[in-house]
Amino acid sequence: MASSPVELAGVITGIACVWLAARNSIWNFPTALVSCALYVIVFWEARLYSDMALQGVFIALAFYGWYQWLYGGPQAQELPITRATALQWTWLSAVAVAYAVGVGYALSAYTDAAIPYWDSSTTAISLVAQVLLTRKKIENWILWLVVDVAYIGLYWHRELYLTAGLYAVYLVLATYGYLEWRRLLRANLQPQAA
């Protein structure tokens, strides 16, 4: 499958979106809306249905995250960067495993999905990472590092070379995002001078 102008536009807006998120900028969310809409088309054409559906969820989460980042903090103020709790990790991990197995089976049994379990597993991890991002949990970047590596292989295998390249860039940006958010988190935890 050859790269298309829609895929190229998705790559450009995707890079902008992740760069803005790594910089802790609220503008990552409107940029995400454009990128996700473009990737609905790309993944439909590549028969990566779980990834296509994921873009729809990402669109909903972009609206949710946009609101949360503006008003989800104490007293409806800007949401601060924090760490996920053990309970959040337990719940999100259980959901991810159930999704990966259940959707992987459904894709395998009922569709012509190219790589059903790989597709559903990367989608499950992406969902957890995106939920953590909407709540400004620093661990979102660690999950993005893991899933970006898996996506590079998946998209290369499906001959989506621009998108595989995009995920290589995402890998670099996720590293930067983690380091930047760690710096901001530490700065916020420092006692304020009186």
UniProtKB/TrEMBL annotation:
Signal peptide: none annotated. Keywords: Cell membrane, Membrane, Transmembrane, Transmembrane helix, Transport. One of its GO terms (cellular component) is plasma membrane. It holds the Pfam family NMN_transporter. It is found in: Cell membrane. Coiled coil: none annotated. GO terms for molecular function: nicotinamide riboside transmembrane transporter activity. The keyword Membrane applies. This is Nicotinamide riboside transporter PnuC. It comes from Hymenobacter qilianensis. The lineage of its organism: Bacteria, Pseudomonadati, Bacteroidota, Cytophagia, Cytophagales.
